[in-house]
Amino acid sequence: MSSLSPGTHAFTAHGIRQVYHVAGTGPVMITHSGGPGVDSAYLRSARLEERFTMVYPEPAGTGDSGPLPEDATYVDTYVDLLHALADHLNVEKIYILGHSHGGFVAQRFAIRFPERTAGLALYSTSPTTDEEFWAVEKAAAAAYPDRHPDVPEARELLEYIGKFDEVTTDEAKTASLSAALPIYFADFWGRRAEFEPLRQGIRAWIVHLRDTTIDYRPDLGRITARTVIITGRHDFICGPMWSEQLHAGIAGSRLVIAENSGHFSQIEEPDVFLEAMAWLLEPDFATEIRSAFRRGDDDEVLRMAQAEVVRARAAGEPEGEVEAVYAMSRLALRAGDLTRAAALATTALEVAVRSGLRRLEERPRHVLAGVTRMAGDHEKARELYRASIALNEELGRTDTVTSELHNLGFVELHLGDRDRARELFETVRTRVFRDGYRAFVPYLGVAATVLAATEKDHGHAARMIGFTDAAFTALGQVPDPDDAEELASARTAAISALGPDTFSRFHAAGASLDATAAFGLAWLD
Predict the structure, then answer these.
(1) In terms of Cα–Cα distance, which of 347, 357, 415, 353 is closest to 385?
(2) Per the structure, how many domains does the chain have?
(3) Domain of 432?
(4) Which residues does residue 23 pair with via DSSP β-bridges, in sequence order?
(5) Which residues, given as ranges, of the chain have pLDDT below 50?
(6) What is the pLDDT of residues 130-189, one digit of tens each?
(7) Do 241 and 140 share a structural domain?
(8) Within-domain flag for 334
(9) I need a labelling partner for 358 at 20 to 30 A (CA). Which of 93, 188, 247, 351 fits?
């Protein structure tokens, strides 16, 4: 039976038995329930199974899965097991639905394994569990009875909230959670008949973990997967203030506030929840337009960008406007119109600065550095690339830092510091193979080509041009404008030095190489 066949399955990872359930069709989405230590059954969704192949693991320490190890951590132990499950399922990229504590696991997975993350649903969760988080939760719980003055049980259940950490048996923890569960809903008492089955069926297990304080806010910029953030307006523990922090930190994310929900919007407002989840499968403008640009489909890029500028300005969405104007600046750069490229990039940067979202500044600043580089002002380009690297390090965008180090290498080469350029190119290669940044492989070929040409090793340059051409073709892409210019110059020099026939032989030899053979490095992901 396949590991993705419908039904219940089990395997062993890190010495722990992992039980999981599979249902549905479509891209693979793995859930991670809250708690920690809460039964995963409440996340089952027949409607999600119409869109995704849903995988529902019973987290270690719960259900029929094995216990957590003695040295288990609050988040990373679960992340390691989630990664092992993805490997077991033999799925290269997964969608993750993380609820409450499961949202911590989902965030951390996407930060540690961006290349394995197709999309995220961060559902009633938070980027931190610092002192403020618990203080806000305590205040919201204390205010709960005042929202239901005619319900005596509303005040009584508060005593159970404070006992979660005092219970010593699984049965006592289940009873405590069940008794307190109404506080997690916006209107449990008015809709009790709907929600009582969940209350009666909920199960919980005691789990012993180390420090339960996290703060992923500095790392949210490293999450590159399409992300939807969902919470209920009346969620007393993971409410809108925490979701707004997630939204501000994750570029391109979508925030959905379910106005009549608490902690369980998939039960309280299922239509709102399903519409938000379906967004994960809709075409993403930034991804689509960047893909069209890399394919060299300039007409399509222009059409998309012009339409998005109109839409984004009308909607007051700076993110869409910045992305669209940025795309048009890249088209101008590709056409060799540096003046127009700079003007458009400056416009995009102005919109980004006005928005107050630092993450929107990154792409326009990249184009302005490229314009300066292509104009031959390498001293200024060095300054701009260094500033871009600093910004992306601040944002936690490791892949963009890698690409800007690559660009800085060319600037150093043109400034005559070949050793520094070689050092930067070697750093980029190491990062690419370490981080599994496979889409960047053709650009490693460009760097190797230009370095060889500078050293007058035209035979190696021709081989690397062959490798690079084949790598771009395999991805269905064309080089970015600045790299295309570097590559064209090296190609002309190699053909002139070697002659067309010899160049063709070296080129064919390079085209047959894979990345490992070309650079002598192994993928570490």
Answers:
(1) 415
(2) 4
(3) 416-525
(4) 54
(5) none
(6) 999 999 998 988 888 888 888 888 777 777 666 667 778 999 889 888 988 999 999 998
(7) no
(8) yes
(9) 93
237-263 confidence digits (pLDDT tens): 999 999 999 998 887 788 999 999 999
- Give me the residues paired with residue 257 across strands: 231
Q: With b meaning 16 or more CB within 10 Å and e meaning fewer, what string describes 217-226?
A: bebbbbbbbb
Query: What does the alpha-carbon distance between residue 290 and residue 283 come to, in Å, rounded to a whole number?
Result: 12
Class of residue 397 by CB neighbours under 10 A (exposed 0-12, middle 13-18, buried 19+): buried
Whether 220 and 257 map to the same domain: the answer is yes
Specify whether 217 is located in the same domain as 162.
Answer: no
Parallel, antiparallel, or unpaired: how do β-strands 94-99 and 254-258 relate?
unpaired
Is residue 454 one of the residues assigned to a domain? yes
DSSP 8-state class, residue 242: H
Phi-psi domain of 336 (left: phi exceeds 0; alpha: psi -120 through 50; beta: other): left
At 164, which amino acid appears? Answer: F
Task: Find tokens 């259940």 and name the residue.
Answer: 157
pLDDT digit string, tens, across residues 75-131: 999 999 999 999 999 998 999 999 999 999 999 999 999 889 999 999 999 999 999
Torsion of CA 365, 370, 375, 381, to 10 degrees: 70
How many Å apart are CA 54 and CA 52, to the nearest integer? 5
Tokens 């070929």 locate to: 445
In a domain, 229, yes or no: yes
Kindly state whether residue 492 falls inside one of the protein's structural domains.
yes
Residue 37 shares a structural domain with residue 117? yes
Measured CA distances, 136 to 131, 300, 371 (Å): 9, 48, 48
Token pair of 251 as six digits = 């570029």
Gap between the Cα atoms of 241 and 239, Å rounded: 6
